[in-house]
């Protein structure tokens, strides 16, 4: 039984605790912490876990075999580095860290440790629809890919959501997904700013991100984070002789009162429910079997951060911003993307 310590018991922390304690096999949650001591105490009591005052205390707990970091992005680096220093596997929600420099410090620490400990929470790689799309692409059914059209629409975002998060917190999922989908790096980013939505408050919402891949594929991503009607994630690949897209998100079609309607998920918890389950079960199984994770690596977290930094530079300058990665340590040869 893999014993987990969770740092950050907010929305996704609680959702991952629910799946680890009620849905998945071979795992138990033994320790939790949160800077909001009240919420940590409540969550800890509900599952009989030790409540620690700090993330560092969770990592040091001898009853913790592996760590899950679900605190705010700017705090990820310190807990991932502390987990590596303790030699404990760590699953870190995206983004790995909020700057490329911080991600590189994690890559350096893991490379110095000599084996993989870090996995980043890019769950789209575990989603059935994305996996099927990749199968069609890899089988050559639509010929060589030329373009991909994506939309990332949130009904709304929390009050702490800042301007730059449309790229660093939201579009970063597409940034990771296209590296995995096409098996190649991003070489440049541009951002166009359409007419502003009155639902967006101070945010620049929506945004239109364009990514150039190393293999010349062009990707466009509409990022709308106050679309109101629900959570809508779209993707269509245009190939030389066909197209392939994510299927309809609704398991049922409703016809009533002279209208036909497809229910739309409310948020990421509903849309990616099964993907998070598969992501965590595969992580737990890999750690239990081999002691090392097999999913998105610290290198993937770093590469996504460099691309999101470039997209931010493009947003601010209005110009094309190139993406330049440092040399990849041998440790990451042969891991996904
Ligand atoms: P949240 O605000 O609901 O929860 C974060 C929790 O971390 C809060 O309870 C906060 O008090 C706690 N916290 C902050 N700093 C801390 C520290 N230094 N030590 C311990 N606890 C600390 O935020 P949410 O939505 O749960 O997001 C958390 C992380 O998960 C973010 O990095 C976010 O990008 C990621 N996320 C990933 C999703 C995905 O689809 N993979 C979906 C939603 C969030
Ligand atoms: C959130 O942090 C997530 O990761 C969700 O998957 C994404 O849709 C949302 O825009 C982010 O804020």
Can you offer a commentary on this structure?
With 337 residues, this protein is α/β, with parallel strands linked by helices. The protein folds into two domains: 2-122 and 274-297, Rossmann fold; 125-266 and 303-322, Dihydrodipicolinate Reductase, domain 2, CATH 3.30.360. It is 37% helix and 22% strand. The protein has ten helices and 15 strands. It has helices at 11-23, 37-47, 55-60, 76-85, 100-113, 128-138, 165-182, 268-271, 273-290, 298-317, and strands spanning 2-7, 27-33, 50-51, 66-69, 90-92, 118-120, 145-153, 186-192, 207-213, 218-224, 232-239, 243-245, 254-256, 259-261, 321-322. The strands form three sheets. Strands 12-11-7-10-9-8-15 form a seven-stranded mixed beta sheet, with helices on one face. The chain has a six-stranded parallel beta sheet with strand order 3-2-1-4-5-6, with helices on both faces. A hairpin with a 2-residue loop joins strand 13 and strand 14 (259-261). Helix 4 (76-85) packs parallel to helix 5, helix 5 (100-113) packs antiparallel against helix 10 and helix 7 packs across helix 10. The radius of gyration is 20 Å and the shape is globular. It starts with a strand and ends in a 15-residue tail after the last strand. The mean pLDDT is 96. The protein binds 1,4-dihydronicotinamide adenine dinucleotide and (2R,3S,4s,5R,6S)-2,3,4,5,6-pentahydroxycyclohexanone. Residues 154, 157, 169-170, 173, 268 line the site of (2R,3S,4s,5R,6S)-2,3,4,5,6-pentahydroxycyclohexanone.
């Amino acid at each position: 039984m893999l014993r987990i310590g969770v740092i950050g018991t907010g929305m996704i922390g609680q959702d991952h605790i629910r799946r680890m304690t009620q849905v998945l096999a071979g795992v138990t949650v033994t320790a939790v912490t949160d800077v909001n001591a009240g919420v940590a105490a409540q969550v800890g009591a509900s599952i009989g876990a030790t409540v620690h005052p700090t993330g560092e205390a969770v990592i040091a707990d001898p009853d913790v075999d592996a760590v899950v970091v679900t605190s705010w992005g700017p705090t990820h680096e310190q807990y991932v580095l502390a987990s590596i220093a303790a030699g404990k596997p760590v699953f870190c929600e995206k983004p790995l860290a909020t700057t490329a420099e911080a991600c590189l410090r994690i890559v350096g620490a893991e490379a110095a440790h000599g084996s993989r400990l870090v996995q980043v929470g890019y769950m789209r790689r575990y989603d059935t629809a994305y996996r099927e799309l990749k199968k069609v692409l890899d089988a050559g059914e639509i010929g060589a890919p030329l373009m991909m059209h994506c939309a990332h629409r949130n009904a709304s975002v929390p009050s702490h959501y800042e301007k730059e998060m449309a790229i660093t917190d939201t579009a970063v999922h597409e940034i990771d997904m296209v590296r995995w989908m096409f098996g190649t790096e991003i070489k440049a980013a541009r951002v166009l700013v359409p007419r502003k939505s009155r639902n967006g408050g101070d945010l620049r919402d929506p945004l239109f991100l364009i990514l150039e891949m190393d293999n010349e594929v062009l990707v466009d991503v509409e990022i709308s984070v106050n679309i109101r009607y629900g959570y809508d994630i779209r993707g269509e690949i245009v190939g030389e002789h066909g197209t392939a897209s994510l299927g309809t998100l609704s398991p049922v079609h409703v016809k009533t009162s002279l209208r036909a309607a497809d229910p739309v998920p409310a948020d990421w918890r509903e849309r990616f429910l099964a993907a998070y389950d598969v992501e965590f079960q595969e992580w737990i199984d890999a750690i239990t079997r081999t002691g090392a994770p097999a999913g998105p690596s610290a290198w993937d977290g770093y590469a996504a951060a460099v691309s999101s930094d470039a997209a931010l530079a493009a947003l601010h300058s209005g110009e094309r911003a190139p993406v330049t990665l440092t040399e990849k340590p041998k440790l990451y040869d042969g891991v996904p993307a």
